[in-house]
Specification:
- By secondary structure, this protein is an alpha/beta fold.
- It has one domain (about 1-180, about 190-359).
- It has helices spanning about 5-30, 45-50, 100-105, 120-130, 135, 150-155, 170-175, 195-205, 250-265, 280-285, 300-305, 315-325, 340-359; strands spanning about 80, 110-115, 140-150, 215-220, 235, 270-280, 310.
- The strands form two sheets. The protein has a five-stranded parallel sheet with strand order 2-1-3-6-7, sandwiched between helices. A two-stranded antiparallel sheet has the order 4-5.
- The longest helix has 30 residues, at about 5-30.
- The protein is globular, with a radius of gyration of 23 Å.
- The model has no long low-confidence stretch (mean pLDDT about 90).
């Protein structure tokens, strides 16, 4: 083969490669892999490269009161929240923080904090805040501890250091600099490996509900529960499934014992603990999945029966009721996180539950 012919073939291959990538990028993957405050898509569409179930949204707030995302040392707060991505508004969209619904419903000042870096988990963070005098200084009456369901046993079944003390000035210095999390994704070239993943996943989902090796399951529902497409397709995170084997009566009882101990420690200072496990999307919708091959998660069934000295926010029961009332999009179709509709329902639950608990 002559050099000229070889060069022509090589350039033609490069052209076809670039043209195919540009086409896939502009038609599909650009909207999957682009996220900023003005165009937000869910984590499940990005992980599973599922373009037809994107539920695009923008960050907007129309509530009269918002929570504090960093410590204002001139304020006092009725409620302190600490938790993972559910508490940090990772879903994006309308009123993405459940704290804003609680603040507006109860007319409370609410402070949302991250885990303190010198602690091993949220319980130790709360105890370090208590031991330092932080909770008393800022007149906090309630502490809401949130965790996604799949990580509750992992996070709260271990022995904690209930005597951990960190200087108050160090805690205040850290939390006055706490910033809201950025939702922007880094810019990508139109030629990237996401284009290949989109093509391969699109083909493999025809043979496996998780495309054999994707982190995202794509299954059919027996009724329309979303407003995207037919409403009968569910995306859920594969990592919801492996922890189910650890949701045993003994492990969840151990978690409950740790929460009760934390609640007693806070109650001695006149502070009430609220525990809010955020139900996994799989668990909430599992009974509606056609030919479901994954196991049932007993987490909430077990935890409901245990004696508690804290306020338990049963997010599965609260959101299940909304689904049975015919409400769609309790979770975003394309995301592992719930929507503003769930946040509103949870705030209404607390509005009615807290006065009952005080009686």
């Amino acid at each position: 083969m002559s050099y000229r012919k070889f060069s022509s073939i090589f350039l033609f291959i490069i052209f076809i490669f670039a043209a195919v990538n540009f086409s896939i990028w502009h038609l599909w993957t650009q909207k999957i892999l682009t996220r900023d405050d003005h165009f937000i898509t869910g984590d499940l569409t990005r992980l599973g490269y599922v373009s037809h179930l994107i539920q695009p949204r923008t960050n907007e707030i129309d509530l009269p009161k918002q929570h504090f995302s960093k410590l204002d040392t001139t304020q006092s707060y009725e409620l302190l929240t600490i938790g993972d991505s559910f508490s940090q508004g990772h879903s994006g969209g309308k009123n993405r923080y459940y704290q804003d619904y609680i603040a507006s419903t109860l007319n409370w000042n609410i402070l949302s904090l991250e885990q303190f870096p010198q602690t091993t988990n949220y319980i130790e963070t709360i105890m370090s805040l208590s031991n330092s005098g932080f909770l008393e200084k800022y007149k906090i009456k309630y502490v809401l501890l949130e965790s996604t369901q799949r990580r509750v046993v992992e996070r709260f079944s271990k022995t904690e250091d209930y005597h951990l003390t960190i200087p108050l000035s160090e805690i205040e210095n850290f939390y006055t600099k706490q910033e809201e999390h950025s939702f922007a994704l880094p810019p990508l070239s139109p030629i990237n490996n996401g284009n290949f993943k989109f093509i391969s996943y699109s083909l493999l989902y025809h043979f496996s509900d998780r495309a054999f090796f994707s982190d995202v399951h794509q299954v059919k529902l027996d009724r329309p529960l979303f407003s995207i497409g037919s409403g009968k397709e569910l995306l859920y995170y594969h990592k919801d499934i492996p922890p189910i084997k650890n949701h045993t009566p003994s492990s969840i009882t151990e978690v409950n014992d740790h929460l009760n101990r934390l609640a007693h420690a806070l109650r001695a200072k006149g502070i009430t603990l609220i525990f809010m496990p955020a139900v996994n999307k799989y668990d909430l919708y599992s009974d509606f999945i056609i030919k479901n091959h994954s196991p049932k998660d007993p987490f909430f069934d077990i935890l409901r029966t245990l004696p508690k000295v804290y306020i338990f926010v049963d997010t599965k029961a609260i959101l299940w009721e909304k689904i049975n009332e015919g409400e769609k999009d309790i979770f975003y179709c394309d995301d592992t996180h719930w929507s503003y509709k769930a946040s509103e329902a949870i705030s209404q639950y607390l509005f009615h539950e807290i006065p009952k608990y005080l009686k």
